[in-house]
């Protein structure tokens, strides 16, 4: 499939041929869901923690005599049955990550790119360069109508462009190796540079 290429000022800059096996697949919600879930679980901190009966601060003395009280027998105020006692089987620090085959991850990225292309939300620009001025770049982005956009460049991202884009709300910039399903789907517009297209096609072939 072919798409027109534009410059950041909106002028035409030719066209580019996109690989059908990457940008023209039929998106599957189940694959996209699996990859996004894998990403979010892997990013989860998993630092939640409660104190067990061996960690709460109480005396280890038997709280009252065994017999003759008319109540239940107890030996420790740390037992989970008591207020401020230890928590039984509560959360402990752990990793929430789970395995997902590389082929499924790659397929999910292809489908995310294809979904944007089919929705007409894929834009190809010649290059992501800037003088480092946020005001100038913000004006260009506004003229292009990008409200929530992700820009994916090649292996290296222009430092001045990253600096200019840093304070623009709703605009994210990633190198090609940082391209991922979650960030692509959560933005309304996907913007690829010509270098980004080449890098993604080389990565996913």
Automatic annotation (TrEMBL):
<dbReference type="GO" id="GO:0019843">
    <property type="term" value="F:rRNA binding"/>
</dbReference>
<protein>
    <recommendedName>
        <fullName>Large ribosomal subunit protein uL4</fullName>
    </recommendedName>
</protein>
<dbReference type="GO" id="GO:0006412">
    <property type="term" value="P:translation"/>
</dbReference>
<dbReference type="InterPro" id="IPR013005">
    <property type="entry name" value="Ribosomal_uL4-like"/>
</dbReference>
<comment type="function">
    <text>Forms part of the polypeptide exit tunnel.</text>
</comment>
<dbReference type="GO" id="GO:0005840">
    <property type="term" value="C:ribosome"/>
</dbReference>
<keyword id="KW-0687">Ribonucleoprotein</keyword>
<comment type="function">
    <text>One of the primary rRNA binding proteins, this protein initially binds near the 5'-end of the 23S rRNA. It is important during the early stages of 50S assembly. It makes multiple contacts with different domains of the 23S rRNA in the assembled 50S subunit and ribosome.</text>
</comment>
<keyword id="KW-0699">rRNA-binding</keyword>
<comment type="similarity">
    <text>Belongs to the universal ribosomal protein uL4 family.</text>
</comment>
<keyword id="KW-0694">RNA-binding</keyword>
<dbReference type="Pfam" id="PF00573">
    <property type="entry name" value="Ribosomal_L4"/>
</dbReference>
<dbReference type="InterPro" id="IPR002136">
    <property type="entry name" value="Ribosomal_uL4"/>
</dbReference>
<comment type="subunit">
    <text>Part of the 50S ribosomal subunit.</text>
</comment>
<keyword id="KW-0689">Ribosomal protein</keyword>
<dbReference type="GO" id="GO:0003735">
    <property type="term" value="F:structural constituent of ribosome"/>
</dbReference>
<dbReference type="GO" id="GO:1990904">
    <property type="term" value="C:ribonucleoprotein complex"/>
</dbReference>
<dbReference type="InterPro" id="IPR023574">
    <property type="entry name" value="Ribosomal_uL4_dom_sf"/>
</dbReference>
């Amino acid at each position: 499939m072919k798409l027109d290429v534009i410059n950041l000022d909106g002028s035409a800059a030719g066209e580019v041929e996109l690989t059908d096996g990457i940008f023209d697949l039929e998106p599957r919600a189940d694959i996209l869901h699996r990859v996004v879930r894998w990403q979010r679980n892997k990013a989860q901190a998993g630092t939640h923690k409660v104190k067990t009966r061996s960690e709460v601060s109480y005396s280890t003395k038997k709280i009252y005599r065994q017999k003759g009280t008319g109540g239940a027998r107890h030996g420790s105020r740390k037992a989970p049955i008591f207020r401020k006692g230890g928590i039984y089987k509560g959360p402990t620090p752990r990793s929430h990550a789970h395995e997902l085959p590389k082929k499924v991850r790659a397929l999910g990225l292809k489908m995310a790119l294809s979904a944007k292309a089919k929705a007409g939300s894929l834009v190809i620009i010649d290059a992501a360069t800037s003088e480092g001025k946020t005001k100038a770049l913000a004006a260009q982005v506004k003229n292009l109508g990008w409200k929530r956009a992700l820009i994916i460049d090649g292996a290296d991202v222009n430092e001045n462009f990253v600096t200019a884009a840093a304070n623009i709300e709703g605009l994210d910039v990633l190198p090609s190796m940082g391209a991922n399903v979650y960030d692509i789907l959560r933005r309304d517009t996907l913007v690829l540079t010509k270098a980004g297209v080449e890098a993604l096609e080389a990565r996913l072939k």
